[in-house]
């Protein structure tokens, strides 16, 4: 499923960037050498970042 239609970023692309250490949408775009266009995807990216950080925190407990 696409997260960013403008740049063709899929959920797995975003997840890979987050797993590699991206903590902001800006870092996700940078990891794929692109930039936000319409920015409709930023909210979904932030949600994915938050969910991943929460999962890591729970796993660390």
What is shown here, in short?
The protein has helices spanning 11-19, 25-31, 42-60, and strands at 2-4, 9-10. By secondary structure, it is mostly helical.
Give a description of the structure:
The chain is mostly helical. Helix content is 57%, strand content 8%. The chain contains 3 helices and 2 strands, in the order E-E-H-H-H. A two-stranded antiparallel sheet has the order 1-2. The termini are far apart. The model has no long low-confidence stretch (mean pLDDT 96).
Question: Layout of helices and strands, plus pairs?
Answer:
Blueprint: E1 2-4, E2 9-10, H1 11-19, H2 25-31, H3 42-60
What labels would you give this structure?
2 strands, 61 residues, mainly alpha, two-stranded antiparallel sheet
Stretches where pLDDT falls below 50 for ≥5 residues?
A: none
In spatial order, strands of the major sheet run 1-2
What is the share of helical residues? 55-70%
Q: Major sheet, described briefly? A: 2 strands, antiparallel
């Amino acid at each position: 499923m696409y997260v960013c239609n403008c740049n063709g970023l899929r959920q797995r692309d975003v997840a890979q960037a987050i797993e590699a250490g991206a903590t902001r949408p800006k870092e996700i775009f940078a990891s794929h050498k692109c930039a936000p266009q319409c920015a409709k995807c930023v909210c979904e990216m932030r949600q994915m970042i938050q969910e991943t950080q929460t999962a890591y925190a729970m796993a660390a407990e």
